[in-house]
Amino acid sequence: MNLKSTWTLTLLFTIFSITLPAGAAEDIKTVLITGANRGLGLEFAKQFSQNGYKVIGTARSPEKATELKATGAEVLKLDVTSEEDIAAVAEALKGKPLDILLNNAGYFGPTLSVGKGNAKINNITRQELLDCFSVNTMGPIFLTQALLPSLQLSKSPKIINISTRSGQLSTPRSKAWGYSVSKAGVNMVTSNLHGELSKNGFIVISLAPGHNQTDMGTERGQLKPEESIGKMIPLIENLTTDQSGRFWYYNGKELPW
What we know:
Blueprint (H helix, E strand, L loop, with lengths): L2 H17 L4 H4 L2 E4 L5 H12 L3 E6 L6 H5 L3 E4 L5 H10 L7 E4 L22 H11 L1 H14 L6 E5 L14 H21 L5 E6 L16 H13 L9 E3 L8
Parallel strand pairs: 1-2, 1-4, 2-3, 4-5, 5-6, 6-7
Helix pairs in contact: 3-9, 5-7, 6-8
């Protein structure tokens, strides 16, 4: 190699080093958001992308998730009740660190929509309850199980389970049987995961986003998603180990179980 070639290589290396500082790629955190094609999940994807995260958003029908794709997120197919989909997502992330798993996908149940009546003991069905548990309680369990290898590659792994004040045992009777009971279940999932994983540096919380104006929350919601998520993301980013295993409201207030 002649002197001119050596000088050219040195110059290129210097320019590349200035453009991409050592460790820059490692500084970009990755968040995976389930149910990210609409509502709260879509707003989470937008704001995490704007904050410089690598965002992986999941949707049951990725070909229809045009707004999610427009955020710059990587879109993966995932129905949280499907073992095949969960395994495929785990395979897609194999060997890659995952910093935040945001279990956001939720199912309200078909009994009666918000604000249009009460689900009562004499009109709920076994199938409705099973459907709610399959998405809201078992989905976070088995997706977390599958993604543990990727979470363990993170320096500060966090698992955020989206819950609701309707799942509090201290809350007056809920009008949504399947939703409230299954969300009380996900709060127990949070407690169990904290008990198992916190000793390995994991932070695991339940997070209630408040009543938002989404398809699920309807126009009766008191909050706009951009408002509540604008407060939840800093809360998530600044979580400390002593906050793990607890239940938080979107505004940073701790909630009783």
